[in-house]
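Objective 1b of the project was to move from sequence-level analysis to a structural picture of ligand recognition. The entry below was assembled by the postdoctoral researcher (A.K.) and checked by the PI before modelling. It contains the amino acid sequence of the target and the SMILES of the bound compound, flavin-adenine dinucleotide.
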Amino acid sequence: MYQFNTLVIGSGLAGLSLAIELANCGQKVAVLTKKELSECNSYYAQGGIAAVIDNNDSIEGHIKDTLVAGAGLCDAKAVRYIIENSANAINWLIAMGVKFDLDDDTSTGYHLTQEGGHNFRRILHVADATGAAVINTLIQKVKRHPNIQVFENFVAIDLITGYKIGLADNQCYGLYALNRNIGQILTFAATNTVLATGGAGKVYLYTTNPDIATGDGIAMAYRAGCRVANMEFMQFHPTCLYHANAKSFLISEAVRGEGGILKLPNGYRFMQDHDERLELAPRDIVAKAIDYEM
Ligand SMILES: Cc1cc2nc3c(=O)[nH]c(=O)nc-3n(C[C@H](O)[C@H](O)[C@H](O)COP(=O)(O)OP(=O)(O)OC[C@H]3O[C@@H](n4cnc5c(N)ncnc54)[C@H](O)[C@@H]3O)c2cc1C
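Corresponding predicted holo structure:
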């Protein structure tokens, strides 16, 4: 049996950043991940990360754009918290060694792009492979950290909770994981267990998500008695290259941010941005698309 202070399940940006911070505080941390460390949604992120770093931009402006794009469904407190802390998060990544694209002609020194829904240039990026640059940088830190042990090709199967082992409390004591290299289930014990297992895009046939995105952490949490919420919200990228015999991949969000608009070949604009409200009911949009197909 393995024993750690904290188990972090998942090697995306959430898992790696937390592991580094906890390990810096002296905790013994295990990072378990389904495949190799880099196989995560975070690695495939392209366009970049939105943050308020330009003095001419404002927290309130970014919040407003987010709430409008969220069509009244956002948790306003969470939006504010994330945006107020966006510059700190970017500074943390820079301190880790992420080299966002520079631009001497801007007041920030960074090249900022604009993406769909944003009314300001506030996207830091590393060319069009931001996720790969961020994750590769953090992987180097994690691999070299004396307090972090990495377990690649380990699939977390289920949490070990008090109820499951006959105790009166339902505390989490660790988890069972399948070591795919040898086909064995192993036990990990820890004071803290963190599910940083990302989303569940792969429950759909067509997605830009990699194969690891199967919602395992959400399912494990649910089985352990946690409340899950907002499961109906799933991000679909509106621009994706489709090929019948190959995996689909994202055509960057920056395409729309920089002015690209989405049209059917007959010129009909089927997906308009927030400032140009749809004039048609959804059934009319479908009817127009069917018209075109026929
Ligand atoms: C193609 C694409 C482009 C994107 N572009 C952008 C962008 O430009 N800007 C932006 O802000 N966002 C972008 N996103 C969204 C962003 O990438 C995600 O919101 C973010 O990366 C989620 O990070 P995460 O750490 O929560 O999860 P992930 O990065 O998905 O990490 C989840 C980790 O959990 C592991 N895991 C899952 N289940 C198990 C299990 N049972 N056992 C062990 N390990 C497990 C996985 O292997 C993986 O390592 C993009 C997403 C995609 C798919």
